[in-house]
Design goal:
Helix content: over 70%
Radius of gyration: 21 Å
Number of strands: 0
Shape: globular
Low-confidence stretches: 1-7
Distance between the termini: 17 Å
Number of helices: 21
Length: 431
């Protein structure tokens, strides 16, 4: 470990890398979820049902994100991660601009597919680079800081994009996020270096792992499988509800796009950052060096937050709904950083991008495919012949809300074997 410690990057440099990767993650989240803010205007302009609009805005991006994510992550475990991040960022930001330029269903569909291909190259290499800037016991804290990109990105997608859409039309929301993303991609390319892989681990990795080896080792790490499932189900639950919340507010309480964006955006920004900072602080405490305690904390917080998530869509009071949003929405950010760190610590250094890619794949299948489409189909079916409305959407969301308890079960199962499997991952590096 003395050799590994000597390779710690200078303090300012490693925090610069962390903050830039956080900005990349924020841009990723913003480009992905901006469609939830302008969902209703897009649906009305293209004359779609809830299920049809959910398919257009979610599934094309998610399918290509999923299909491209694993091979790009495998490439990131074997080549320059910085270049992959920069190229991906420029690609998805360009296609985000094209979403705003689209004038037909098929043009918008193709632009979302292009954005999905680009976004697939963001998170796995980003978290892998961060893991080579911070030693293992500091990664839960570092990845919690990285996870600040999620609330910042959601705020950009809701509040900032909503303000642009309210002032200039829904297309302006895509321009406001796509153009800065292209500039950020150039910044990554010009200012971020490629750190030596696994330089801060207890044992340096030997050779490069094949895709089959990585997949086989992942399946042996039962705690990693349960952490990936817990993270994925949290995305199904929390981010699935958030996907439909602006539309729910428009239909149920008669808010405008800008008003709904401002209401949810402030919760994402203030509550999400507070929850993420709280997670970073908690993960840095000495008593949280035991990974089992991390998992227990995540399970308890998720279970407690599931209750207000049910009340938020059951009530007919905007005041009570807003209060419940403040109670549960911040919790969907708390799990992101610790889960990323646990997945990284359960993987040998030469497999980290691949492990993260599987985690991202599961999360995005649940979040971008299952949740939007399930709620859309349920909303259409509950509405009968009159078409989807506020009540049909309410009941569809109430079907989704209790799934937070499912995530808690996976956190509990992961805690049973996580300590031994972290030791196994470290041993594999030198084998």
């Amino acid at each position: 470990m003395a050799t590994a410690r000597s390779e710690l990057a200078p303090l300012l440099l490693r925090w610069y890398v962390l903050l830039v990767m956080c900005a990349v993650y924020a841009t990723n989240i913003a480009a992905r979820y901006v469609v939830t803010t302008v969902f209703e205007p897009i649906r009305l302009e293209l004359r779609l049902t809830d299920a049809g609009a959910a398919f257009l805005t979610g599934i094309p991006l998610a399918l290509f994100y999923v299909v491209c994510g694993i091979p790009i992550a495998w490439l990131a475990d074997r080549s320059n991660r910085r270049n992959i991040i920069a190229a991906s960022l420029i690609l998805w930001s360009g296609f985000t601009v094209l979403c705003g330029l689209a004038t037909s269903y098929w043009q918008f569909l193709l632009a979302r597919i292009g954005a999905g291909v680009g976004e697939a190259g963001a998170t796995p290499p980003s978290t892998s680079i961060v893991s080579d800037c911070f030693p293992g016991e500091r990664r839960p804290m570092a990845l919690s800081v990285f996870a600040l990109g999620a609330p910042i990105g959601a705020w950009l997608a809701a509040d900032v994009a909503g303000a642009f859409a309210g002032a200039y039309g829904w297309r302006a929301a895509f321009y406001a996020l796509g153009i800065p993303g292209i500039l950020l991609g150039l910044l990554v390319l010009l200012t971020i270096g490629e750190p030596r892989r696994g330089r801060l681990d207890a044992a340096l990795a030997v050779g490069k792992a094949s895709f089959r080896e990585s997949l086989a080792f992942l399946w042996q790490q039962r705690a990693a499988v349960h952490v990936i499932m817990a993270s994925g189900v949290c995305s199904l639950w929390g981010w699935g509800l958030v996907w439909w919340t602006p539309t729910f507010l428009l239909r149920t309480y008669g808010l405008s796009v800008a008003q709904a964006g401002a209401l949810t955006g402030h919760i994402h920004l203030v509550g999400g950052i507070a929850a993420t900072v709280a997670a970073a602080w908690l993960m840095s405490r000495p008593f949280m060096l035991d990974a089992r305690r991390v998992l227990w904390a995540l399970g308890v917080i998720t279970a407690c937050a599931t209750v207000p998530s049910i009340i938020a869509y059951w009530t007919h009071s905007l005041w009570l709904a807003r209060l419940m949003f403040w109670a549960y929405v911040p919790a969907i950010y708390f799990f992101i950083g610790p889960c990323m760190a646990l997945v990284l610590n359960l993987a040998p250094s030469q497999m980290r991008s691949t492990f993260t890619a599987w985690s991202v794949l599961v999360g995005n299948v649940f979040n971008l495919i299952v949740a939007p489409q399930l709620v859309g189909v349920l909303s259409d079916s509950f509405s009968g012949v009159h078409g989807a409305d506020a009540e049909s959407l309410r009941w569809a969301l109430l079907v989704l809300a209790p799934t937070g308890f499912w995530a808690t079960w996976h956190f509990y199962l992961a805690g049973r074997t996580v300590s031994a499997e972290i030791v196994r991952a470290n041993a594999y590096c030198s084998s």
